[in-house]
Write a structure and sequence with these properties.
The chain is an alpha/beta fold. It has 9 helices and 18 strands. Strand 12, helix 4 and strand 13 form a beta-alpha-beta unit.
């Protein structure tokens, strides 16, 4: 297999490097070689770069876990996809073999990767991290089915178990947060309150179905009361936290403490743990951390694609900013700055 370009995390909290990498050997059992067309930049990549979970033991390594591509080759025993198939790449395991992680070399040394990476021109992934994609959806939004969209739908449908007419508060309306708003709207949530510190994100949240939006920077210490006021003085049925910020996690818990369901999507820094009184957990409140919305990619990706094609789940309304691989660090900076929607890297640009 030939060498190709990839974005490489060589040092934590440093810009990514663009370099030529080569697969270390032939495809193993259960591995799939994919030409990547589009890859999203997720908040998880920002967390990896910033070492949010602690010191990174796997440097240098590749990044990315939502994408769209074409199968170029398959290793032994692969049965769920064939050469020529268009596939969504995803981080939650689906059907097929879980292979050994991919191995590469870069600049004469080993380069680490997991079961799926997408920020490269080609990638070796485990069979259970790709799902065949047969849809008329715009291909530039299809990568979101690998993480953002399936996570959002799962958070609302599986984690929060939202029922018709229940109120929803979404703390953080970035890429995943906007789709949580959309999933709540599509599931009959009412009212839906979106909270963010970036006005452009809040404007988009209104377009995606938020009944009320609040700027956390403007409200300051009065934010909690402003949220309750937007709900008519009642506590929310469901609170979804997507930022991972300690103070927002604690706010989410307080808002749901009167018997609501609180779902934590954002990951807090390892050195900034949230603190709260556990008493409400004994009196009807439910607190859970979401792992990709409990996504079942082989089921959720085709069903969400059908819903999007029919306009029931407005995936194509999410703003998408297309950049080239050479612009990857600009894209990361844009995500950090609060650019609405999703930054997607066009690997063929």
């Amino acid at each position: 297999m030939q060498s190709f370009r990839a974005a490489i995390l060589a040092m934590s909290r440093e810009p990514l490097l663009i370099g030529a990498i080569s697969p270390a050997g032939e495809l193993k059992a259960g591995q799939v070689f994919v030409r990547v067309r589009f890859s999203g930049i997720c908040g998880a990549q920002i967390n990896e770069i910033d070492a949010v979970k602690g010191p990174d033991k796997f440097l240098p390594h590749l990044l990315g876990h939502e994408g769209l591509g074409e199968v170029v080759a398959t290793g032994p025993l692969v049965k769920t996809v064939e050469v020529g198939d268009t596939v969504v790449l995803h981080w939650m395991p689906g059907t097929g073999i879980q292979s050994d992680p991919a191995a590469y070399t870069w600049d004469g040394r080993p380069l680490n990767a997991g079961w799926v990476t997408t920020l490269s021109e080609y990638t070796i992934v485990s069979e259970n991290r790709v799902t065949r994609f047969e849809s008329s959806l715009d291909p530039k939004v299809a990568p979101l089915l690998g993480c953002a969209a399936t996570t959002a739908a799962g958070v609302i449908g599986r984690d929060a178990r939202l029922r018709l007419g229940e109120s929803v508060v979404v703390l953080g309306t970035g890429g995943v947060g906007l789709l949580v708003v959309e999933a709540a709207r599509a599931s009959g949530g009412l009212p839906i309150v979106g909270v963010d510190r970036v006005g452009e994100r809040l404007a988009q949240a209104v377009q995606m179905g938020a009944s009320t939006v609040l700027n956390s920077a403007d409200e300051g210490e009065q934010l909690e009361q402003a949220i309750l006021q937007a709900l008519g003085g009642r506590s929310p049925d469901v609170v979804v936290e997507t930022t991972g910020a300690k103070e927002m996690i604690e706010l989410a818990y307080r808002l749901a403490s009167s018997g609501g369901r609180c779902v934590l999507v954002g990951v807090a820094r390892h050195d900034q743990p949230a603190a709260f009184n556990t008493l409400p957990l004994h009196f009807g409140m439910a607190l859970s951390g979401s792992k990709g919305g409990g996504a079942r990619p082989e089921v959720d990706i085709p069903s969400l694609a059908r819903a999007a094609e029919a306009g029931l789940f407005r995936l194509q309304s999410i703003p998408v900013t297309l950049l080239s691989l050479e612009q990857i660090n600009e894209g990361i900076d844009a995500v950090r700055a609060g650019l609405p929607g999703r930054v997607v890297i066009d690997m063929m640009a």
